[in-house]
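Please fill in the sequence for the structure shown.

STRUCTURE ENCODING:
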């Protein structure tokens, strides 16, 4: 059915929007079944040509809000609705033609499903996890596999700004590997579907202070952590005392600390 839709509407991916359309129906089915959809509130981001939307509607969510920047894709959706190819009358169904970074859900208790290109991965995750007061309960994100691996900490077994930013708010697991041949047009690298489940383990650590300090450190990741912290006007004796208490080596670098250690460090420094 996916290929039929693309051929029927002569859909061409827009490079400017980083579009690559998933056309493997089995992977689409697997993605929809990662979390319970029936009777839940779902936000689908950048739904593209609506293959995933169709599967979501079949499961009868309480509401389905689509956030799509590409007006051409919305016209295709409206045509399919008019032809009754998509049946949405039992669902609170709304279309938002806007940038997802400007989208603010008007309800609590929802899930996000998205297929997002590399260049906007970090901004979208920050938007839903940090900018919004009403954060999602979970998110299913199809993204480039190397980005997913970085979030999961598989990249050289080191922490990064992205992995720490996510871990402060979520537990993350890789659910599906998606080979590049499953897309039209095929991207240059593989993809994976990640499940993000939000938590409040570190809610006592100020978000802005946390993000500020990890971003500053990763600007000079080769420097020793103590040296970097002192250069940001933190008291050296206080830092050395904390390192001694934690049995940290003075040559420690920030990428060697996990999310718990970073949160404890931020708490003690401030």
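FILLED IN BY: designer on duty
SEQUENCE:
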């Amino acid at each position: 059915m996916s290929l039929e839709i693309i051929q029927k509407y002569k859909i061409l991916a827009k490079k400017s929007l980083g579009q690559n359309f998933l056309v493997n129906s089995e992977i689409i089915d697997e993605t929809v079944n990662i979390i319970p959809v029936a009777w839940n509130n779902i936000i689908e981001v950048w739904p593209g040509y609506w293959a995933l939307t169709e599967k979501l509607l079949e499961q009868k969510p309480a509401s389905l809000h689509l956030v799509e920047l590409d007006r051409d894709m919305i016209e295709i959706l409206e045509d399919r609705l008019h032809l009754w190819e998509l049946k949405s009358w039992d669902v609170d169904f709304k279309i938002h033609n806007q940038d997802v970074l400007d989208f603010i859900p008007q309800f609590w208790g929802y899930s996000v499903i998205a297929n997002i290109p590399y260049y906007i991965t970090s901004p979208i995750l920050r938007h839903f996890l940090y900018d919004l007061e009403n954060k999602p309960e979970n998110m299913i994100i199809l993204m480039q596999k190397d980005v997913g691996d970085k979030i999961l900490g598989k990249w050289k077994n080191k922490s990064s700004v992205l992995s720490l930013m996510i871990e402060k708010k979520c537990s993350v697991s890789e659910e599906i590997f998606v080979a590049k041949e499953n897309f039209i047009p095929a991207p240059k690298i593989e993809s994976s579907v990640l499940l993000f489940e939000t938590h409040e383990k570190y809610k006592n650590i100020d978000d802005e202070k946390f993000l500020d300090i990890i971003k500053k450190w990763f600007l000079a990741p080769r420097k020793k952590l103590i040296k970097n912290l002192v250069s940001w006007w933190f008291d050296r004796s206080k830092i050395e005392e904390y390192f001694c208490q934690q049995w940290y080596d003075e040559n420690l670098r920030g990428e060697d600390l996990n999310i718990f250690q970073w949160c404890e460090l931020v708490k003690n420094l401030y």
